[in-house]
Amino acid sequence: MQTYSLTVDKFLDHAAKWRPHGEVVTAETGGPARRIGYAALRARSQRLSGALAALGLAFGDRVGTLAWNTQHHLEMYYAAMGAGLVCHTLNPRLTAEHLAAMVNEAEDRVLAVAANLLPLAGELQALCPGLEHLIVMDAAPEASLPDGRARVWAYEELLEAHGAEAVWGGFSEESPAGLCYTSGTTGRPKGVLYTHRSNYLHTLRALQADAFAITGEDAVLVAVPMFHANAWGLPFAVPAVGAKLVLPGRQADGASLAALMRAEAASIVVGVQTVWLGVADHLEATGGSLPDLKRVVIGGSYCPEALIRRLEAVLGAEVQTTWGMTELSPLGTVATPGARSAAPDAGRPVLGLDLNLTDAEGVSLPEQRGVVGHLKVRGQSVVDRYFKAEADAVDADGWFDTGDLASIDAEGNLTICGRSKDLIKSGGEWINPAEIEAIVGRDPAVAQVAVIARADPKWGERPVLIVEPRRDQAIEDADLVALLRGKVADWWLPDRVVQVAAMPVAATGKIDKMRLRADYGGGEQFEGECSV
Fold first, then answer.
1. Residues labelled catalytic
2. Number of H helices, E strands in the chain
3. What is the CATH architecture of 9-251?
4. Are 276 and 299 a contacting pair, CB within 8 Å?
5. pLDDT exceeds cutoff 80 at 339
6. What pTM, to 2 d.p., does this model score?
């Protein structure tokens, strides 16, 4: 058989040849959306590869991106990866100090930055002496940067001055393609270095009918950030079938997304649940509808059944739940379209990923169904070793410990039961916050819920229940605790309840439990505390 290297540039090659007029649409604040066909986008990306080479970048060099979901960012993805460079996506919601640590560890020589993030890029210049060039995307530079060694280029001017068609591919499929750091919501961020092969095979998994099931006739709005785990692989999967790719830029509020979904007839939308909660709130307030929407793919954190039912009723579409991690490229399991199980966060692994439940010592449980264990995974798109780490991230048999507690039902559906690090040890016994969150989250008056440990001089730790009520809803603290009575052991009942106007979220849209622990996990009395 022929040798066919599995490199990600082939996705855009395929789209340009067979779906040349398939659109990539980018929302523009205060103006009409920017549009381009796949053939034109490929031509620009190839010329951008030549421009990066003119800046002195060579095979394997890292190109940092500090940007939103836009056409320019997508072009940079393919320009870097197609030429054998590594696209290192950076989260603009992190501090300059955290970003600088990543840039310096990755040894990024070029940083492509969104125009409205120039102040942050200016801070990075002073902290990252290895940066040689700044490429300003999405608009011409409108403000001067602080003095630094990096030369500043306007994206279109760089393309005009140094753009030259480059040859893509021609290297091993095992070559690195992308670098993404974990979100850091549970500890220090760690780099995951994706290969072309892992991204290619992950794309084939994601496109299966039992997974994202995207076809060339779909219009897919990607609200999950392109700086997080390759936007769940959608910048590869959507062009691979030539579907319309709709990018919202920085506008992720409910009104903006609803208007964009209607204007572009979005049939599939993808993002964390908080994004679609904002869309649902907007539609309820305005009485609007989304007639073309078929599926809403959510992930990132547990989504209560009551919220799923509400989203399906208001958005008029099926909610498809998923579970994954940066270390998994990121898709782990996904609920089959049209066949959602009773468990809101359940789904099966797609071919290429295997699951294993173990005890706390890492020994496989003799019975894998109907029990709770520590979840380990292995497969062709799972991390083997973190970037620049000395030790492997897997055990002797190749299993990666996800840090999750999980169960698998008789049909093979996975349910995440909580993070092992989130377990609360009270009086020598364990309390699982996820079980409490699932029960409280079913109440229609609750928008979001989290349970954390609070230091206790007698019991060691005690659970704190933190709730964000739905808009215009009032609920008593005692009633929240009453939801749990008879459903969990009495000693599991939280003795502290906090109601917040808005749940803090991490940079990727998940509830930020590190922030909650910092605010409410100490032993001191805090403002707004209610003893129950």
1. 182, 327, 425, 430
2. 15, 26
3. 3-Layer(aba) Sandwich (3.40)
4. no
5. no
6. 0.85
